[in-house]
Amino acid sequence: MAEKLVLIERTGKIAYLTLNRPEKLNALSQELFEDLDAALDEVEADDEISVVIIRGKGRAFSVGYDVGKPTDKTVTEDRDMLEAFTLRWLRIWDFPKPIIAQVQGYALAGGTQLLACCDIVVTDKDATFGFPSLPLGGGFVGMYWGWHIGVQRAKMLDLTAGSRISGKEATDYGFAAKCFDGDRLEEETLKIARGIAKTPLDILKLKKKAHNRVMEAQGFRNTLMFGPEQDAIIHTADGIKLVREKINELGLKGAIEWFNNQEV
Q1: How many alpha carbons lie under 13 Å from residue 260 in its C-beta half-sphere?
Q2: Is the model's pLDDT at 70 over the cut of 90?
Q3: Computed over its alpha carbons, how large is the radius of gyration of the chain?
Q4: 51-56, strands of its sheet edge to edge
């Protein structure tokens, strides 16, 4: 039997969910999503667990969606696929127990959408956060960032394909709550989780919901649900078609090199 793509470990009232696709830098595949759904179901049903820590195995938290060759989809099919991604991230947002993300290595593109829906992000100060290396969407990732770091910074990063910031910068911007030297990251994240887990679970659930409702009153959920329509429309733009043609012609790495070498 193949090893699960999301591993579950328990220590006291804390459950670790480890993204387990290190050879692909924990790129988000359909199979990984399915295992994540099952893992969330399991720890939600376990009344002995009060806090969840999500982390990545190997050199990355997650480099985002598993990018294969572009496929032909109708606008409606594309929109429905993107909505399925959004609903998965909102499952993290709505999860009744606090979720802490522990970030090392790379956290890019769709991986940052997962982070933006966690309750607390704790990172290695030298981790790398960033956006897709090619302009293939219309703000689907970036709109998650604006709630945490402000619109101007979100625009600056999102409008610049391939933009990157360190874990220290992500913390300074407000995308992460704490940053530590890499050799202290696991210890310090667990310390935060244990501090939270001392509070009775029923109180934690109510407190989390209260904080989420503040952001939802400001439009967080409705904004995220607008993303699939926005992205599906822009996927029909001439600029997107050009970039996809370059991917088909040159491969992903070649297309990124072509894009970066453009003169403007």
Answers
A1: 10
A2: no
A3: 18
A4: 6-11, 14-19, 51-56, 99-103, 120-124, 178-180
